[in-house]
Amino acid sequence: MQPENNTIFAEDSNPSITQTLTAYLDGELSEPVREVLDARLAAEPALRALMAELESGKALGLDLFAALAREPVPPGLTRAARITRSAR
């Protein structure tokens, strides 16, 4: 099943193909649009290469945020949060 309008995949359209691939990675596309994109990914090496770059970037970002989440909260920030809460 293909959507009636496949123009979201044109390089000059809005959203761009990069935005569409990012939505694909985030699980935000409808099933019909996902099917069209799956077919394009199977047929277009350049699109697969762009998808691989985006996947790598997403993985790197998730790793960096995970590392930040493990860092202890600075004491000054903890004090500021307590002061802000008590002022309410």
Describe the structure.
This protein is mainly alpha-helical. The protein has a single domain (7-86), classed as Arc Repressor Mutant, subunit A, CATH 1.10.10. It is 68% helix and 0% strand. The protein has 4 helices and no strands. It has helices at 17-25, 31-43, 45-70, 75-86. It starts with 16 loop residues before the first helix and ends with a helix.
Helix and strand arrangement:
Blueprint: H1 17-25, H2 31-43, H3 45-70, H4 75-86
Helix pairs in contact: 1-3, 2-3
Task: Give descriptors for this structure.
88 residues; mainly alpha; 4 helices; 68% helix; elongated
Order of helices and strands: HHHH
Kindly report how far apart the N and C termini lie.
54 Å
Number of strands: 0
Class of secondary structure makeup:
mainly alpha
Count of the domains: 1
The proportion of residues forming helix, as a percent range, comes to 55-70%
- pLDDT averaged residue by residue: 78
Q: Estimate the strand proportion.
A: under 5%
Provide the CATH top-level class.
Answer: Mainly Alpha
Q: Regions with pLDDT < 50 over 5+ consecutive residues?
A: 1-8, 10-14
Number of helices: 4
Shape: elongated
Q: Main beta sheet: strand number and arrangement?
A: none
Radius of gyration: 20 Å
CATH architecture term: Orthogonal Bundle
- Could you name the CATH topology? Arc Repressor Mutant, subunit A
